[in-house]
């Protein structure tokens, strides 16, 4: 299975998976980008996967679904008109062409009904988990997002994290403020700057790398707690409150 990042808008990635001549797309906000890639590679679209309802993730779905007559999988808990295969936490998306079996993970927080799609070694997580960051609260709560991120963090360390935005360098700048004594952040920043300098995506990220550099997965670490305490002017009562204060800090960063 080959997985290709299709840049869209200012900083989105649409993920195209293909094996042989059969393809699946994840969060196609722009139909034109997808159609161009399908034509260039001689691929037939077989399914569309959606993680949440925001326009930059679903804007291209009606045109693609109408032209290719393919099933559209998306969160049952969100109102997305094009979805004809609503999915919930614990469901399985099984396709024959390309051969693909994905577990649906309910990961609310960025939005109330957000889902992710997981297979061993692969995670398509939309705007829940970013490289060195996480999504803003646009319909869900900090408590929900905290639980969702803990769930994703428990996946195997070699899981490739395919999120939907090229936010990595900006997120690493914040991570350096949130945990200034973590040398892994600077190492990751240099690596990602080199990738961007060559015009390459910083994604996918590895989950074990994220556990080392992403402050939103490190809210039990003393350095993060101390930085949050200094910024908020009070010590968080527990890890959940530390996460909520950290997310609020990032909103204004």
UniProtKB/TrEMBL annotation:
Pfam families xref list: HAGH_C, Lactamase_B
Residues annotated as domain Metallo-beta-lactamase: 11-165
Enzyme Commission no: 3.1.2.6
Catalysed transformations (reactions): an S-(2-hydroxyacyl)glutathione + H2O = a 2-hydroxy carboxylate + glutathione + H(+)
N-terminal signal peptide: none
CDD domains given in the database record: hydroxyacylglutathione_hydrolase_MBL-fold
InterPro entries: Clx_II_MBL (IPR035680), Glyoxalase_II_hydrolase (IPR050110), HAGH_C (IPR032282), Hydroxyacylglutathione_Hdrlase (IPR017782), Metallo-B-lactamas (IPR001279), RibonucZ/Hydroxyglut_hydro (IPR036866)
Positions of Zn(2+) 2 binding: 56-57, 127, 165
SMART domains associated with the record: Lactamase_B
Note on cofactor: Binds 2 Zn(2+) ions per subunit.
Gene Ontology biological process terms, A to Z: methylglyoxal catabolic process to D-lactate via S-lactoyl-glutathione
Annotated metabolic or biological route of this protein: Secondary metabolite metabolism; methylglyoxal degradation; (R)-lactate from methylglyoxal: step 2/2
SUPFAM superfamilies named among the record's database cross-references: Metallo-hydrolase/oxidoreductase (SSF56281)
Cofactor: Zn(2+)
Role of this protein: Thiolesterase that catalyzes the hydrolysis of S-D-lactoyl-glutathione to form glutathione and D-lactic acid.
Database matches in HAMAP family: Glyoxalase_2
PANTHER family referenced in this protein's UniProt entry, alphabetically: HYDROXYACYLGLUTATHIONE HYDROLASE (PTHR43705), HYDROXYACYLGLUTATHIONE HYDROLASE GLOB (PTHR43705:SF1)
Family of this protein: Belongs to the metallo-beta-lactamase superfamily. Glyoxalase II family.
Name the UniProt record assigns to this protein: Hydroxyacylglutathione hydrolase
Organism of this sequence: Pseudothauera nasutitermitis
Encoding gene, per UniProt annotation: gloB
């Amino acid at each position: 299975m080959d997985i290709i990042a299709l840049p869209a808008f200012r900083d989105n990635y649409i993920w195209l998976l293909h094996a042989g001549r059969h393809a699946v797309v994840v969060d196609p906000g722009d139909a034109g980008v997808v159609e161009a890639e399908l034509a260039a590679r001689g691929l037939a679209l077989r399914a569309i996967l959606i993680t949440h309802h925001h326009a930059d993730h679903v804007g291209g779905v009606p045109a693609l679904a109408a032209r290719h007559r393919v099933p559209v999988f998306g969160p049952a808990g969100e109102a997305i008109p094009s979805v004809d295969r609503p999915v919930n936490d614990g469901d399985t998306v099984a396709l024959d062409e390309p051969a693909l079996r994905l577990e649906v993970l309910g990961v609310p927080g960025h939005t109330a009904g957000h889902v992710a799609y997981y297979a061993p070694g692969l995670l398509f997580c939309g705007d829940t988990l970013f490289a060195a960051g996480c999504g803003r609260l646009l319909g869900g709560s900090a408590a929900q997002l905290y639980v969702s991120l803990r769930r994703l963090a428990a996946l195997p360390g070699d899981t490739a994290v395919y999120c939907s935005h090229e936010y990595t360098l900006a997120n690493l700048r914040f991570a350096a403020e949130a945990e200034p004594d973590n040398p892994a952040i600077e190492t990751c920043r240099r690596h990602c700057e080199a990738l961007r300098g060559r015009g390459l995506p910083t994604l996918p990220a590895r989950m074990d790398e994220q556990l080392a550099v992403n402050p939103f997965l490190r809210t039990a670490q003393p350095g993060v707690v101390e930085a949050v305490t200094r910024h908020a002017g009070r010590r968080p009562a527990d890890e959940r409150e530390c996460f909520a204060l950290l997310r609020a800090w990032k909103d204004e960063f």
